[in-house]
Design brief:
Number of strands: 2
Shape: globular
Distance between the termini: 49 Å
Strand order of the largest sheet: 1-2
Largest sheet: 2 strands, antiparallel
Number of helices: 5
Structural class: mainly alpha
Helix content: 40-55%
Strand content: 5-15%
């Protein structure tokens, strides 16, 4: 899933986040990145087990894109049967380190705060019919 750069900016990017999102955008890329961090030099089948729910087609496609973006290294060994291993490049390791604070935030977030879960407990700003909003008082 390649994202096109914004043509209205001088270098086609408005900030570093859009550059990063081009590389990690999509449902599975961050999970693949993390799997390669926790299990360096993984084979395709192992990655498939480490990222439950990803299809072979999507995994293969994302690995190719991540290799083209320079965050995944693919090494093919001249053996019978053929053996291919995937690992993170230096850029991939740096990207994973940058994502660590996001992982910490996600682990600390209460499960009930996920979409569709109950609202957080505590004071609310819900209005009763006919009440005046606090900012208008």
């Amino acid at each position: 899933m390649a994202t096109l750069n914004r043509p209205d900016t001088p270098d086609a990017h408005s900030c570093g986040i859009d550059t990063a999102m081009e590389v990690i955008g999509g449902k599975w890329k961050v999970l693949i990145l993390w799997a390669l961090h926790t299990h360096p030099r993984s084979r395709f089948g192992e990655l498939r087990r480490l990222v439950p729910g990803v299809t072979e087609k999507v995994l293969a496609s994302h690995l190719r894109e991540m290799e083209a973006d320079g965050i995944v290294r693919r090494v093919s060994y001249d053996e019978v049967p053929p053996r291919v291993e995937y690992s993170l490049t230096e850029d991939g390791n740096r990207l994973n380190a940058a994502l660590e604070p996001l992982a910490v935030w996600g682990r600390a977030r209460p499960a009930g705060r996920l979409r569709g879960g109950p609202p957080p407990s505590g004071p609310t700003t819900a209005l009763t019919p006919g009440a005046t909003p606090p900012s208008a008082a």
